[in-house]
Amino acid sequence: MARQVFCEHLKKEAAGLDFQLYPGEIGTRIFNGISKEAWAEWQKKQVMLINEHKLSMINPDHRELLESTMVGFLFEGKDVEIEGYVPKSK
User: Fold this and answer.
1) Residue 12: enclosing H or E segment and its boundaries?
2) pLDDT by residue (tens digit) across 51-60?
3) What are the residue boundaries of the structural domains of the chain, listed by start?
4) pTM of the prediction?
């Protein structure tokens, strides 16, 4: 059976990640409190952010921007602003 966590992003019990995908303290926090569903949402946002801002993972400033945006999205309820992106209405 899948590991269950109380997802801080979705505010509900959900399937947890199979292993820690991000290093360090933030990675541990994600592993313990973020579901697979929320992580998948973040990954879509991350790709759009990297593409829009032409971020390079070699650049420490770019990595820092991405990490702070990720923490804001997953734990603080901040949406990711993507210029010119309009989400599909449900």
Assistant:
1) strand 12-15
2) 998 999 999 9
3) 4-75
4) 0.87
Residue 7, φ and ψ in degrees, nearest 5: -75, 120
Residue listed under structure tokens 């309009």: 86
Residues 21, 31 contacting (CB under 8 angstroms): yes
Which residue type sits at 57?
M
* Best CA proximity match to 65, nearest among 85, 50, 52: 50
Are 43 and 62 in contact by the 8 Å Cβ rule? The answer is no
Token readout for 31 is: 């592993």
Is the four-CA dihedral 90, 72, 82, 67 of positive or negative sign? Answer: negative
CATH topology of domain 4-75: YggX-like (1.10.3880)
The neighbouring-strand residues paired with 6 are 13
